[in-house]
Structures are given as C-alpha cells and as structure tokens.
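Tip: read the tokens left to right.
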C-alpha cells in the first residue's frame, strides 16, 4: 500500500459487500483471472468479474472474432465458455483457493436459464455476487435482446433475485444500444437489482475494403475501448442523476486513473477495466494507484466522497 492509498480511503462496496478497491476486471477481457495472476495481485483488486457463463458449454462464434478499430476494438466471441459445471469444478475453486473475490457474470437465452444459474451459484465459496448479462437474445421474443426491453430485462432480474443467494448482490449489466437507458435502469432496480453495471459494448461493424466483406465471422461485434468512453460516461451520468441511490459499476474505455475518476465523478462507486488489459495486463493495479493519487490531489479523503461529485450545483 502506497502513502497515497493510506491518505485516501479507497474502500467501496458491491451492493452491501465491502471490497478494498474500486477497480475490478471487466467480464470477458481476462477470462477467469488466471491470465492476470503474473501481473496483478488479484486479492488486492475489487474482484475478478468472470466471463459470462451459461448453463452449457459454448464454442462461440466463427472466426475471425476480433478487429481493431480507431481507439478501440470489435469482438465477436459469442460467449465461448465452459458452462456452469466447468465454472464450478475448475474456475471458481481456483479463485477461492487464492482468496480472490469473484463477481460471476451469468447469461442465458430464457428467463429460466438465468434463474437456474443463480440458484447453482448459491453458497459457492469466493463468489461475492452476480453480474447479469442481459445483452443476450431472448429466444422467446424473436431474438430481441433482453437489455433493450425494460419489461424483458426486469423479468430476468426478478427471476435472478428470487433464485439467488440472499447474500449475493445482483447487478444488471445494461446495454447502451437503447433510446432511453434510464427507463431500463429503473425497471431492473424496481425488479430487485442491487446495482447496475454500465455499459456493455456498442454493436458495431467493420468491412474489409480488400475483400469487401465484413471482417468478423459473426458479421457484427461489440465495440469497446476508449472510443466508447464518452457514451459510457453519458449513460452513468444520466442514470445516477435519475437514481442517485443505486450503486453503479462503471466501465467503457477506462485506461488510466483519470479515466476512472471521470466515472466516479459521474456517479460510479466502482469501475471495471477491460480492453486496456490486452496491451497492459498490469492495468488494474496501475489504475487503482492513479485513481488514488488523483483523488488525493483534489482533496478527497475517500473514494465515496467523490462519487457523483460532478452533479453538485454549479454555485457549490
């Protein structure tokens, strides 16, 4: 712990569960944490947010799956993963044995899938909560993404909250690909979400001018990286203004402590760092230290004092 960290209280919480750092991984960008162990003390960060897990193993979408874009990247992985059985047998025990907190991301194509996953995770050692990836197609509604419909999104969250361990905070991960993100945020919190993860990737497309075809095997993909940060900040700002008591895990293009500070000032009480780890696997520790220094330089005694500070009246 540095002198700056002793001067600024960096503690925060996921729901009602305290964590020592406001910096977490972002789902899908570092698998289940093993890849980062040589570069980051995983017990010192807020938590490892796992890849989204489904009921059954999934091979994912066809290749190519990634494409570089200006100030970002597109990914079309397709939620490849071991399924809940593999997660429970291999990945979560590995994290728990090392004292690493995990926020498990769950995904499904039916409301019942999400509920079953939440139930399977009850009482599992090391799991501090659930992040519900509702940016999945609802097969019972012509493939419409759950997160784009307040009613469908709230149905998922209500089912997860009813099935989940009462000690597990439930965070709904919201999509920016909507007209009114506040209405979705209000619907899922009314349905029982303890907090919100914001934002998921933006849907994008890249075409190769030589082949004159889409670059990604899955045609479209999720845009992440610094290019989406202004959109993510706008979403966090709007939701915090409308629902100031709802905890927000902010994400979208965070590469530095000053980037993270913007999310905190907009209303996030914690942040996830994702795409940045591809070229700097030590980014989580660095962002924590830079954020602590930035808070100290601005006279904040604690992280919590800075949450939503940009919303203060102008004359203040």
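Filled-in amino acids:
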């Amino acid at each position: 712990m540095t002198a700056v960290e002793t001067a600024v209280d960096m503690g925060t919480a996921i729901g009602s569960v305290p964590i020592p750092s406001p910096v977490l991984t972002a789902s899908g960008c570092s698998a289940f944490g093993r890849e980062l162990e040589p570069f980051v003390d995983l017990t010192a960060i807020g938590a490892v947010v796992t890849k989204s897990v489904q009921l059954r193993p999934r091979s994912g979408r066809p290749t190519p799956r990634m494409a570089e874009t200006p100030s970002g990247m597109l990914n079309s992985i397709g939620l490849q993963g071991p399924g809940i059985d593999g997660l429970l047998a291999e990945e979560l025990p590995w994290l728990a044995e090392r004292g690493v907190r995990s926020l498990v991301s769950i995904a499904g194509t039916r409301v019942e899938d999400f509920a079953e996953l939440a139930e399977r995770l009850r009482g599992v050692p090391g799991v501090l909560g659930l992040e519900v990836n509702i940016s999945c197609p609802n097969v019972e509604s012509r493939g419409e993404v759950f997160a784009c419909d307040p009613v469908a999104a709230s149905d998922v969250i209500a089912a997860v909250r009813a099935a989940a361990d009462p000690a597990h905070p439930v965070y709904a991960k919201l999509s920016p690909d909507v007209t009114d993100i506040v209405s979705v945020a209000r619907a899922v919190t009314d349905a029982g979400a303890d907090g919100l993860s914001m934002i998921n990737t933006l849907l994008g497309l890249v075409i190769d001018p030589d082949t004159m075809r889409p670059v990604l095997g899955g045609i479209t993909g999720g845009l992440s990286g610094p290019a989406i940060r202004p959109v993510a900040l706008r979403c966090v700002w709007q939701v915090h203004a409308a629902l100031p008591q709802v905890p927000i895990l902010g994400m979208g293009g965070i590469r530095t402590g000053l980037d993270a500070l913007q999310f905190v000032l907009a209303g996030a009480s914690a942040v996830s760092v994702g795409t940045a780890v591809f070229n700097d696997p030590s980014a989580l520790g660095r962002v924590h230290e830079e954020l602590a220094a930035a808070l100290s330089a601005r006279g904040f005694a604690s992280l919590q004092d800075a949450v939503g500070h940009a919303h203060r009246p102008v004359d203040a």
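The chain has a mean pLDDT of 95. Residues 83-97 form the longest helix (15 residues).
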